[in-house]
Specification:
The protein has helices at 17-28, 55-72, 101-119, 138-141, 149-153, 168-173, 196-206, 254-267, 283-296, 305-315, 326-329, 331-335, 347-355, 363-386, 395-430, 437-478, 484-509, 515-547; strands at 4-7, 10-11, 34-41, 46-53, 88-97, 123-127, 176-180, 185-191, 211-212, 219-220, 227-234, 239-246, 272-278. It has 549 residues and is of the alpha+beta class.
Length: 549
C-alpha cells in the first residue's frame, strides 16, 4: 500500500493574498504533492493550507513552505485573533494511509531539526512528536505566544526542542510547532430541534471532557474518547447541531460517534436526522462505517468499495443537508490520478483494442481478464447466497467468501495491465543501443531480466486464478442452487485463465538464457494446471447434479 500523509500548516498571514499565494506556490514546487485546500482568515490573520502526498515529498513541501513564510512574514509586525508563535505557527503531519502515527512522529522530529539547522527557525515538537510529556499539548508549547519567546528561549525548562538563543532570525520568524497527530474528523450532527441548550446537553453527554460536576468539584466525563463537542444553532439550516471534532478516529470511529450521539439524543427526546462532514476524510473512515452498517444489516461485506461507501453515506444520512460526493470529500479520491489502462476500458473497448494490429494486449492480459471474471462470478454467487430468503443465519459464511473473491478480483484486474506492461518492457529493451560491447552487454542483461519478469507475471495470474476455484467449488456445493451454473462458469473461466497464462509462462521462459531460472516457473505452472483440472472436475460434477433434468 502506498504511504500517504497529510500536512496542515498554519501560517501567520491571512490578509495579504500575495504572501499567501507565494507560500502555496513554494509548496506546489514539489512533485507528488497536491494542495487540497487554502483557508485564509482575515480576523485571525492566519491561513490554513492542506496538502497531501507520500512522506518524502510532503516533508520537503512543508520545509519549502516554512522557508517562504520565513522570508515574507515578519512576526514583529503581526497581530491577529488566533494564538501564534511563528510565521509558520503549527506544522502537523497526519497519517492517512499505509503509515503509522509513530512513523509520522519520527518524520516530524526530523523536519523540526532540519528547520532549525538549515533555516535557523527554533521548533517545539508537540502531540505524538513531543520530546517532553507536557509538550503533547500544543497550548503548552505555544504558551505566551510569540511575545514570550525571548524569555522562554533563555529558560532551560521552556526553551525549544531545537533552537539556540534569541537573535534577529528568530525575532523575524518566531518559533514553529511541529507535530504529528491523528486525522481530525470534523462532523456536525443534525438534530430535529432549534434548541441550542438541548444540543449542548447532548454534546456534554458524549464529548470526552463531559460537563462540570453540579457539586462544583471536577468534571463528569462523556462517553466518547478523543472527541470535543459543543451545541449550536445554524441559521442557514434552521436547526441545532452537535458540532464535534473527533481527534482520535481509532478510539472513536465516525460511525460509533454517530451511533452514540443518536443514543444520547434519543434519551433527551431528540433525534439525529443526519450528519455533515466538514472538510475532508480518509477513505477508511467511510469504509469502516459502511462495513459496520452492513454487518448490522447482516449483509455481505464482499461488495465493491463504491457500494460500501454508499452504504456509509446513506446510513449516517451524510446527504441530509446537501449532496455528498465522495469524490470531493475523500482524500484518496481527490489526489488519485484518473485510472488509465485496459482494466478501465469498456468490454467493447477492451475487445477492439485486443483485435487491433498492436501485439498487446495479448493472451496474457486476456487470461488475467478471464481470471477476473472467474473471481467476479464466484463473488456474485456468494453475495446472492448471503441475501437469499431463509438463509439469514448463514450471511457471514457467504460474506467471507465474497470478501475473498473481491480481493482476488482486484489482484487479477491489476494483472490485466501488468501483463501488457511486461510485454512492453521487453520491447523497450530491444530498442536499447548496441553500438559498443558495454551497450550490448547492458542490453542483453536488460532483455534477460525483462523476459524473466514477463514469465513471472502470467505465473501470478495462474496462482490467483487457482485461488478462485475453491471459492467456485464452495459455492457450487453450498451456495444458492439457482446460481449453480454461475459457479460452473466461474470454474471454466478460471481453468481457461490458468491454461492461457501457462502458455505465456512457457513462451517467455523459452526465451531465457538462464535455464535454471526458467525450470522452476515451468514446474510450478504444471502443478497449477493439474490442481486446477482436479478442482474443475469437482465443481462441474457438483453443478451438473444441481441442473440435471
Amino acid at each position: 500500500m502506498k504511504q500517504l500523509i497529510e500536512c496542515v500548516p498554519n501560517y501567520s498571514e491571512g490578509r495579504e493574498r500575495q504572501v499567501i499565494d507565494a507560500i502555496v506556490a513554494a509548496i506546489r514546487t514539489v512533485e507528488g504533492v497536491k494542495v487540497l485546500d487554502i483557508d485564509p482568515g482575515e480576523a485571525t490573520n492566519r491561513t490554513v493550507v492542506t496538502f497531501v502526498g507520500e512522506p518524502g515529498p510532503v516533508c520537503e513541501a512543508a520545509f519549502r513552505g516554512a522557508a517562504k513564510a520565513q522570508e515574507l512574514i515578519d512576526m514583529r509586525q503581526h497581530h491577529g485573533a488566533h494564538p501564534r508563535s511563528g510565521a509558520t505557527d503549527v506544522l502537523p503531519l497526519v497519517p492517512v494511509a499505509g503509515i503509522t502515527l509513530e512513523e509520522c512522529a519520527v518524520l516530524a522530529r526530523e523536519l523540526a531539526q532540519r528547520l532549525w539547522k538549515e533555516l535557523g527557525i527554533p521548533c517545539y515538537c508537540y502531540e505524538a512528536a513531543a520530546l517532553k510529556p507536557e509538550r503533547k499539548n500544543l497550548a503548552v508549547c505555544r504558551e505566551g505566544e510569540y511575545e514570550a519567546l525571548p524569555e522562554k528561549m533563555a529558560d532551560e525548562a521552556r526553551k525549544p526542542d531545537f533552537g539556540g538563543p534569541w537573535n534577529e532570525t528568530v525575532a523575524k520568524a518566531g518559533a514553529t510547532n511541529v507535530g504529528a497527530r491523528n486525522f481530525l474528523v470534523a462532523v456536525n450532527f443534525n438534530l430535529n430541534t432549534t434548541s441550542t441548550r438541548r444540543a449542548m446537553a447532548v454534546a456534554f453527554d458524549v464529548r470526552e471532557k463531559g460537563r462540570k460536576n453540579p457539586s462544583g468539584e471536577g468534571w463528569i466525563p462523556g462517553t466518547l474518547k478523543g472527541t470535543k463537542a459543543i451545541g449550536w444553532y445554524i441559521d442557514e439550516y434552521g436547526i441545532a447541531q452537535v458540532s464535534m471534532n473527533i481527534t482520535d478516529i481509532n478510539a472513536t470511529p465516525l460511525h460509533l460517534a454517530y451511533e452514540e450521539v443518536s443514543r444520547a439524543a434519543t434519551a433527551r427526546g431528540l433525534r439525529v436526522t443526519g450528519a455533515e462532514i466538514v472538510g475532508l476524510v480518509p477513505k477508511r473512515v467511510l469504509l469502516e462505517a459502511g462495513r459496520f452498517y452492513l454487518e448490522k444489516q447482516q449483509r455481505s461485506l464482499g461488495i465493491s468499495e463504491q457500494e460500501i461507501v454508499k452504504i456509509a453515506v446513506k446510513s449516517m444520512s451524510l446527504d441530509d443537508l446537501r449532496p455528498f460526493n465522495p469524490q470531493e470529500k475523500v482524500i484518496e479520491y481527490l489526489i488519485a490520478d484518473a485510472p488509465k489502462g485496459l482494466a478501465q476500458l469498456t468490454v467493447e473497448g477492451f475487445a477492439r483494442e485486443t483485435a487491433s494490429e498492436s501485439p498487446a494486449p495479448g493472451g496474457g492480459s486476456i487470461s488475467a481478464c478471464m481470471g477476473t471474471f472467474s473471481a467476479a462470478l464466484a463473488t456474485m454467487v456468494a453475495n446472492l447466497s448471503a441475501h437469499k430468503r431463509g438463509w439469514d443465519a448463514r450471511w457471514k459464511e457467504f460474506s467471507d467468501v465474497a470478501e475473498e473473491g473481491q480481493k482476488l478480483l482486484d489482484e487479477l484486474m491489476q494483472l490485466i495491465d501488468e501483463d501488457t506492461a511486461a510485454f512492453n518492457r521487453i520491447m523497450d529493451c530491444f530498442s536499447m543501443p548496441k553500438g559498443t560491447d558495454a551497450e550490448k552487454a547492458a542490453r542483453k542483461q536488460a532483455i534477460e531480466e525483462a523476459t524473466l519478469y514477463a514469465a513471472q507475471v502470467p505465473l501470478r495470474t495462474m496462482e490467483a486464478s487457482l485461488k478462485t476455484l475453491p471459492l467456485a467449488l464452495q459455492m457450487a456445493e453450498k451456495g444458492n442452487p439457482a446460481s449453480a451454473s454461475d459457479a460452473g462458469v466461474a470454474a471454466l473461466a478460471a481453468v481457461a485463465a490458468i491454461k492461457g497464462a501457462r502458455l505465456n509462462v512457457r513462451i517467455n521462459a523459452a526465451g531465457l538464457q538462464d535455464k535454471a531460472s526458467a525450470q522452476p516457473l515451468l514446474d510450478r505452472s504444471d502443478e497449477i494446471v493439474a490442481q486446477a483440472e482436479a478442482l474443475e472436475k469437482q465443481v462441474l460434477e457438483t453443478v451438473n447434479k444441481h441442473i440435471e433434468l
